[in-house]
Design goal:
Radius of gyration: 19 Å
Shape: globular
Order of helices and strands: EEHHHEEHEHEEHEHEH
Largest sheet: 5 strands, antiparallel
Number of helices: 8
Strand order of the largest sheet: 8-5-7-6-9
């Protein structure tokens, strides 16, 4: 499993289903057992706080997550001060969390309904772009380009306008915190093309993943 520190109170965790089972949990029980879900989240939060040097006294306040194309789980966990003594209580995001995630993951795609959905993620270094592509290269983009302007790297990713495509685009946008920033007001692709800033004109994600491998 891998942890990233987002802020003093928030972390990201990337964990495979095999790693979840090594910790003693199974997806089937997490779908129906709230207590086991909370137990897993608290365990991951404890490991993350120790690995990232965060305040060990903080407890889990909320979380959200998504299954990635390779079926690993991406979680964002927010911590804060404990409200009192006793067992830690997850205040939001609980209930049928894993059941909903699995339903979203397994739902079949619907026919295309319109123009492709585009995501733009900004990175400060090319190494951060490569790290991102190493994790999300199976995110099913139908197109991707990489630009560089004024020492900022702009990764453009397109997804089909289907339920599955919209879900994949949402996961990628959320994953922008892994070294990148999602900004709606960033430079347009038209501007970047006009200024001849294109580094990789097609299949950028796949090419950068192969470079890393």
């Amino acid at each position: 499993m891998t942890f990233w520190k987002v802020s003093d109170t928030r972390m990201n965790c990337l964990i495979t289903q095999e790693e979840i089972e090594i910790l003693g949990f199974h997806i089937d029980e997490l779908m129906s057992n709230r207590e086991r879900t909370v137990e897993l989240l608290n365990l991951l939060a404890a490991k993350g706080k120790e690995a990232l040097g965060m305040d060990l006294q903080m407890v889990v306040h909320s979380f959200y997550g998504a299954f990635l194309p390779d079926r690993s789980l991406l979680l964002t966990i927010t911590c804060g001060e404990a409200a009192g003594d006793g067992e830690v209580q997850v205040l939001s995001g609980e209930g049928d969390f894993f059941a909903r995630l699995l339903a979203d993951r397994d739902e079949e795609e619907k026919e295309s309904a319109g123009e492709p959905i585009s995501c733009q993620i900004l990175f400060s270094t090319i190494d951060s772009v490569i790290d991102f592509c190493r994790i999300f290269h199976e995110g099913r983009p139908i197109g991707s380009r990489l630009y560089e302007y004024d020492d900022i790297y702009y990764l453009m990713m397109d997804f089909e306008d289907t339920q599955q495509g919209r879900s994949d685009a949402l996961k990628v946008a959320m994953a922008g915190e892994f070294g990148g920033v999602v900004e709606e007001e960033a430079l347009s692709e038209v501007f970047l093309k006009e200024h001849e800033c294109c580094l990789i004109g097609e299949a950028a994600v796949e090419k950068l993943y192969e470079l890393e491998a």
